[in-house]
Amino acid sequence: MADVEGSCACGAITVRVVDGFGDNAKAAICHCTDCQKAAGSLCNYWAPVLVEKLHVVKGQPKTYRSPEGKSMSGKPVQRTFCPDCGTPLYVYAEGVPSRYCVILALFGNNLEPGVEIFWRSAKRERVSLCPNYSDLENVD
Ligand SMILES: [Zn+2]
Ligand SMILES: [Zn+2]
């Protein structure tokens, strides 16, 4: 597949996903409390991308690294965002070192949802945000 590029709200940062997300790529809806705060919303909407396939091609993002033991896995989580407009860009969970979780709003939320995770943090327990996707996988 061709590379795809996405940018933050102000346009200062552009990221590239080499070879795109893949034909069968699906989005994850993450209800964890850290994603709720980072997104300023009910949840985060992202897709996994191998670390070697994600490149910042314009601008200088900033990264916040959570302290040991504060994330749901216990391992630090790095959240990268645009320092000018605050748009979240991608997340790196140090407990899952092979990939980034790339925020799909940068790309126009271009993928269909495939999984909803961390339901135990959701305020709307088991009320799917995507009720029309009957094959949506659910993970606590
Ligand atoms: Zn920006
Ligand atoms: Zn999350």
What does this structure look like?
With 140 residues, the protein is mostly beta strands. The chain has one domain: Metal Binding Protein, Guanine Nucleotide Exchange Factor, Chain A. 5% of the residues lie in helices and 37% in strands. It contains 1 helix and 11 strands, in the order E-E-E-H-E-E-E-E-E-E-E-E. The chain has one helix at 33-39; strands spanning 4-7, 14-17, 27-30, 44-50, 54-58, 62-65, 77-81, 88-93, 99-103, 113-117, 137-139. The strands form 2 sheets. The chain has an 8-stranded mixed β-sheet. It has a 3-stranded antiparallel β-sheet with strand order 1-2-5, with no helix packed on it. Strand 7 and strand 8 form a beta hairpin. The longest helix is centred in the first third of the chain and has 7 residues, at 33-39. The radius of gyration is 15 Å and the shape is globular. It starts with a strand and ends with a strand. The model has no long low-confidence stretch (mean pLDDT 91).
